[in-house]
Amino acid sequence: MRILLVGAGGVGDAIAKIAAERDFFEVMVVADYDITKAERTVEWIRRKHGDAVAAKFVTGRIDASTADGVAEVCREFAITHVLNAVEPKFVPTVFSGAFTAGCHYLDMAMSLSEPHETDPYHQAGLKLGDQQYALNDQWERAGLLALVGIGVEPGLSNIFARYAVDYLFSEVDEISVKDGGNLVVRDADGNEIFAPSFSIWTTIEECLNPPLMWEEGKGWYTTRAFSEPEVFEFPEGIGAVECVNVEHEEVAMLPRTMNAKKYSFKYGLGSEFIGVLKTLNLLGLDRTKPVRVRSAQGPVDVAPRDVVVAVLPEPASLGSQMEGKTCAGTLVTGKDKEGNPRATYLYHVADNAWAYENYESQAVVWQTAFNPLIALELLANGTWQGKGVVAPEEFDPRPFLDLMSASTGYQQKWVAQERLASNPLSNPS
Q1: CA distances (Å), origin 147, targets 25, 155, 158
Q2: Measured at the alpha carbon of residue 316, what is the angle toward residues 280 and 148, in degrees to the nearest 5?
Q3: Fewer CB within 10 Å, N or C, the chain?
Q4: DSSP for 271-293?
Q5: How large is the average pLDDT for residues 77-105?
Q6: Is the peptide bond before 154 cis (omega within 30 degrees of 0)?
Q7: Which of 270, 389, 369 is nearest to 319 (CA)?
Q8: Average of pLDDT values for 31-51?
Q9: ∠ at Cα 333 (328, 335), nearest 5°?
Q10: Cβ burial, residue 273 (10 Å; 0-12/13-18/19+)
Q11: Which pLDDT score is estimated for 187?
């Protein structure tokens, strides 16, 4: 297996560092538009693991905005699998470039949505991932696999859902992904500051778009951003966090192949973060269409959202300033195999102090990074096989979860926590 890692930002950097501990691949090309990022990652691997391990990693420059550019790098290095670790606005070109070069493909975020033209807060328009799913037949005919949405959310959350449906429940009322944490970022003086732990470009996209929902008898529909707030008790000391509806891939993915009465995604953003996002929206700073701006060098066209990205700290750089934990999980409610009421929260927690000590990565990007590597390893050894545009929940979840937690695997604990079926949000049993 010869892997092209597209992007050496926070998640890409963490992917390469974790991959240095595994031996299932022949070479990994760490590529970025800014090649110094890729070089920095590989140098870290060399210092940590030595020249012999670092020799499996090659750096390259790539322009993810053009399919031809991606295909050219694939051919140059005889790539077999493309792992997309750049912002989702580049999904169409990286996806297309991998196909053109005859490579298998994986990503952690899917093609972007477009709100319904006339009724965006009630009807679904173009959903997340629709553009990729539409090309399933093309990928199948070519004998190629596009494993989409295989990060932590989507990805691990989908696998938790499949495991619950297959092995824990006889009937499912709702699958609701719940994401929250108690992470804080501090400046040099110890003051808490506003600094998103994940790409602010992506965060704005998913948090300000109309959240997608699915219910039996209604199908897909949308609601207002930050709707239906609820307080969810997160495990392992994180505690109670208010969660709200947010647009996310799982709701567009899971109803295609699974049987539940309702699907939702709720994110513990916090009142301050929600306030900032609402202000950005009010001022038009969330827009991606360039506007003409006067400068000393003359007029320039700038996308307001790109300005927001430029003035905020790079998420990958926050590990040393961050403290706390982040939790990714899936709450499933319904009936157990004997027909009794059941509520189970399947989750994984990442501790920032541990992630930074071991990988010099902050917790959120690190938690995303190990999942596509587990998938690649299962593909490499033939445990997972497929072709076409396929989601993680379409594979057997047990090998993934076994490799994730094994002492010879990725050594990451996951938990199926039973909750009171009468009040699954705040009462762990």
Answers
A1: 17, 10, 13
A2: 80
A3: C
A4: HHHHHHHHHHHHHTTT--S-EEE
A5: 97
A6: yes
A7: 369
A8: 97
A9: 140
A10: middle
A11: 77
- Indicate the range of 247-261, 272-286, 349-363 predicted with least confidence: 272-286
Residue listed under structure tokens 């939790």 = 327
CA 422 to chain centre: 31
Q: Where are the domains of the chain?
A: 2-107, 156-419
Indicate the CATH number of 156-419 among 3.30.70.100, 3.30.160.20, 3.30.360.10, 2.60.120.20: 3.30.360.10
CA 13 to chain centre: 15
**Residue 198: its pLDDT value, please?**
64
How many Å separate Cα 174 from the centre of its chain? 21
What is the C-alpha to C-alpha distance for residues 138 and 154, in angstroms, rounded to an integer?
23
Spatial CB neighbours of 89, under 8 Å, sequence gap ≥ 6: 112, 201, 288
Question: Would you state the structure tokens that stand for residue 46, as one six-digit string?
Answer: 């060399």
Most confident among 12-21, 223-232, 300-309 (mean pLDDT): 12-21
List the structure tokens of 389: 């545009």
Query: 142: part of which helix (H) or strand (E)?
Result: none
From residue 326, alpha-carbon distances to 123, 197, 234, 375, 427 in Å are 32, 10, 9, 22, 19
Q: Does domain 2-107 have CATH number 3.40.50.720?
A: yes
In one letter, which amino acid is 232?
A: F
Torsion, Cα 242 255 96 147, to 10 degrees, reads: 90
CA 146 to chain centroid, in Å, comes to: 16
For residues 321-336, average pLDDT: 94
Coil, strand or helix at 5 = strand
Of residues 167, 159, 152, 202, the one with CA closest to residue 372: 152
Interior/surface letters 358-371, b for 16+ CB within 10 angstroms, e for the rest: ebbbbbbbbbbbbb
CA atoms within 13 A of residue 263's CA, in its CB half-sphere = 30
* Fold matches, 2-107 and 156-419: no
Residue 220 dihedral angles phi and psi, to the nearest 5°: -80, 140
pLDDT at 197: 65
What predicted TM-score, i.e. pTM, was given to this entire model?
Answer: 0.92
Q: What tokens were used for 295?
A: 């400068």
Helix, coil or strand: residue 59: strand
Residue 248 Cα to chain centre, angstroms:
9
What does the alpha-carbon distance between residue 79 and residue 30 come to, in Å, rounded to a whole number? 12
Q: How many CA atoms, within 13 angstroms, populate the side-chain half-sphere of residue 186?
A: 9
Other residues' Cβ atoms within 10 Å of the Cβ of residue 19? 26
Based on the number of CB atoms within 10 Å of its own CB, is 179 exposed (0-12), middle (13-18) or buried (19 or more)? buried
